[in-house]
Amino acid sequence: MGSKINGDTSVSEDSAFRVGHFNINGKKLSVPLQALDIKKYHESKINFGDLDIDVGEVYRTYSKEKLKLFREFPERAAEEERKLNLWKESVKKDSSTRFLFIRFEGKEYPNEDEMKTLISISYSFSDATPIPAFPDIFKEALTRSKRSGQPVTETKVRVTEEKLKAFFDFLDKYIGLLNDWNHKDILGIIPINIGTQNIVKLISFYYSKGVNHFYLDLNMAAFNRLIDTPLMHGILSELKRVGLEYQKTFFYSINGSPGRFTKGNSIIGGKDILTGGAGLDCVGRIHLGAGGNGKKITDPRVLEKLKLNGIRLFNKEDYGYYKLESKSLPFKLPEDNIVDKNLLTDLNKGKKFSDIFNMHQLSIENKNLRIYIQEGFKPLTKIEKEKNKVSKIDIKSIQNYRTKDLKSLI
Q1: Is residue 377 part of a domain?
Q2: pLDDT at 176
Q3: Residue 227: which domain range?
Q4: What is the count of structural domains for the chain?
Q5: Which secondary-structure segment (H or E) carries 372?
């Protein structure tokens, strides 16, 4: 690998928010920041104007079956390439850092030819090449008995030595193929659902292969999942043990929860904007579906309410996420808003355009966060004082992580 990620950050005094920059494939990336979903941005046809798009990402799902179709029907492969090129050109190539994250579905790893296809797709788009995610590899259907004696089958993550060895064997092969012709750096995936003990082994393995920068797939968990458990402490302890400097290690995250609404509550404190407090430099978007109960809804009043409730708007003045209860906006839109308010309350388009509104507002606020850190080096203190929708529990979690865990590791 030739074009290494390099840079340096400073850790704030009251949290793990870091300020500084990384040079990635010749582009300077200032942190902390929120990523742009390039596909949604392109499809919205809304221009962010003078606001710099510091980092953008695309998330694509592949499988053995899909790659077989690409091979057998070249026009399908050409159409995929056309889409990727279109999204790639929708943000400024000279200043925006881009990543393409791949989710490979199924119980089998790709063979060598399939690996080469995945590498060519991701490499051509990304300024640093992320290793694919494999959501199904460690899942296993397990049967247990209820108290009544009735058997029930559940899908659980089970990490056996055999599965872990197969994962490391795949990584060894994939990284080797990348190193044959890659002049860009690699982002190693850290799937947080495989357990801290296995993640520590994974960090050590990556280091032995020269992979020193990472992305965490949070799998719809919030940042608390990292710092209210031994997880992040285990990651950073292993970094220190192998000799990697925390301030020079780039951390990206995807599929992190912005927070969940409880019954009867239409406002929650945003968690995605606080993820930098867990020491992550770049916070990516959610690319996993929320699922559903499969029931078809026919009552138009219920359907309207569900569509409205799916629209959530981020208010950077108080760090709250507001769920729409009616077609009236829950707060006055900021002067820097670029999305038509009628689009935000449209039953069929509101969810799509609320995502654009939130990405834009979060991008602006991340620039403010960098100023908070630079001016007083205590961003959490300012957030606690001025952003009244932030959970006190979240504030305390970040403070405890900084003073109890992180202090001894940096």
Answers
A1: yes
A2: 95
A3: 6-408
A4: 1
A5: helix 350-376
pLDDT of residue 151: 77
Tokens (6 digits) for 39 = 């596909």
Question: Phi/psi at 386 (nearest 5 deg)?
Answer: -110, -20
Q: Measured between alpha carbons, how far is residue 31 from residues 7, 18, 247, 281 in Å?
A: 11, 7, 12, 6
State mean pLDDT over 84-102. Answer: 85
pLDDT exceeding 90 applies to what percent of the chain?
67
231-242 vs 196-208: helix crossing angle, rounded to 10: 30
The answer to whether residue 320 is domain-embedded is yes
Q: What is the mean pLDDT of residues 289-318?
A: 76
The whole-model pTM stands at 0.92
State how beta strands 55-63 and 97-105 pair.
parallel
Tokens 């908070």 locate to 372
Over 90: is that where the pLDDT of 340 sits?
A: yes
Distance CA 396, CA 393 (A): 5
Distance separating alpha carbons of residues 351 and 355, to the nearest angstrom: 6
* Average pLDDT of the residues in 260-280: 91
* Calpha distance 92→53 (Å, rounded): 8
- Identify whether 1 is part of a domain: no
Question: Which amino acid, residue 192?
Answer: I
d(CA 118, CA 47): 30
Kindly state the tokens that stand for 62.
């592949």
**What CATH number should be reported for the domain holding residue 36?**
3.20.20.105
Please name which of 281, 246, 269, 223 lies closest in space to residue 33, comparing C-alpha atoms: 281
Rounded Cα distance, 88 and 53, in Å? 12
E-only strand ranges, 114-258: 129-130, 139-145, 151-157, 186-191, 213-217, 251-254
59 within a domain of the structure (yes/no): yes
**In the predicted model, is pLDDT for residue 299 greater than 80?**
no
The whole-angstrom distance between residue 211's C-alpha and the CA centroid of its chain comes to 19
